[in-house]
TrEMBL record:
It is an enzyme of class 1 (oxidoreductase). It comes from the Bacteria. The lineage of its organism: Bacteria, Pseudomonadati, Pseudomonadota, Alphaproteobacteria, Rhodobacterales. Gene3D superfamilies: NAD(P)-binding Rossmann-like Domain (3.40.50.720). PROSITE patterns: ADH_SHORT (PS00061). InterPro entries: 3-OHbutyrate_DH, NAD(P)-bd_dom_sf, Sc_DH/Rdtase_CS, SDR, SDR_fam. This is 3-hydroxybutyrate dehydrogenase. The keyword Oxidoreductase applies. Belongs to the short-chain dehydrogenases/reductases (SDR) family. One of its GO terms (molecular function) is 3-hydroxybutyrate dehydrogenase activity. Keywords: Oxidoreductase. Its EC number is 1.1.1.30.
């Protein structure tokens, strides 16, 4: 049902972004994949998705920490019916030891990039009379954890931006929502495990069970396919009146 629609997914050469791209393509959407790298592997990935799903897939390099590159990503895409703001990074440290440059990078990539891409995408969506903005926030867009000041601030910020986007597009065939994943075992999470082992003086298994999934009552990681399925649902007619809200896919994290 997404045949003829173009989806731009930021940060989509890995993890959740790639999972979302796969599910949107499976539903028929053409894709623009993105990351800050420009490796042969990135272009191979685009070809692989095109072959697998029979849709058009382009890879456009753009660094989501740079406002002009966020904007030019959408300009180069040319059309953008579905915008998935997914690019994100993490850094874990107490506030008084948190490197200011890490704070700036997380705010830029995890939050401000969505403002810049959305600003350029909305006129294209209005022209098409249809559009979907799907922001990948986090359970940390609704709750907090120690040592993740920049990430929690950015994710709360993108939830706020989602609401404003919904209000400014209401009644125009455009919706804006945020998906709030709990823990999904992707590279961003894998990279946190050694830091958490050090901080908590625990084994890998104990960090996963007692620190990460301790907040996730289901006791299981969520999957990238589940994030993709939720994004596809938000693009379906059943979701036409769902706008300005968050959908938690977190195994019960935010119910605790
Ligand atoms: P990941 O590290 O696998 O993917 C992050 C993606 O962002 C990669 O494709 C990377 O290339 C891209 N990226 C990083 N910096 C970029 C930049 N400057 N410009 C362009 N692209 C850039 O991690 P993930 O788990 O797939 O995370 C994706 C999103 O989901 C993030 O916003 C993250 O905060 C969010 N999220 C993840 C989890 C989880 O448990 N994995 C939970 C909640 C929210």
């Amino acid at each position: 049902f997404l045949k003829g629609r173009t989806a731009v997914v930021t940060g989509s050469n890995s993890g959740i972004g790639l999972g979302v791209a796969h599910e949107l393509a499976r539903a028929g959407a053409d894709l623009v994949l993105n990351s800050f790298t420009d490796d042969p592997a990135d272009h191979d990935l685009a070809k692989q998705l095109a072959d697998e799903h029979g849709v058009q897939v382009r890879y456009i390099q753009a660094d989501m920490s740079k406002p002009d590159q966020c904007r030019s990503l959408i300009e180069k895409a040319g059309s953008c019916d579905i915008l998935v703001n997914n690019a994100g990074i993490q850094h874990v440290a107490p506030i008084d030891e948190f490197p200011p440059e890490k704070w700036d990078a997380i705010i830029a990539i995890n939050m401000s990039s969505a403002f810049h891409t959305t600003a350029v995408a909305l006129p294209l969506m209005r022209k098409a009379g249809w559009g979907r903005v799907v922001n990948i926030a986090s359970a940390h867009g609704l709750t907090a954890s120690p040592y993740k000041s920049a990430y929690v601030a950015a994710k709360h910020g993108i939830v706020g931006l989602t609401k404003v986007t919904a209000l400014e597009t209401a009644g125009q065939g455009i919706t804006a929502n945020a998906i709030c994943p709990g823990y999904v075992l992707t590279p961003i999470v894998e990279k946190q495990i050694p830091d958490q082992m050090k901080t908590h003086n625990m084994s890998r298994e104990d960090v996963i069970a007692k620190v990460m999934l301790q907040r996730q009552p289901s006791g299981d990681f969520a999957t990238v396919e589940q994030m993709g399925g939720t994004a596809v649902f938000l693009c379906s007619p059943a979701a036409d009146q769902i706008t300005g809200t968050t959908i938690s896919v977190d195994g019960g994290w935010t119910a605790l």
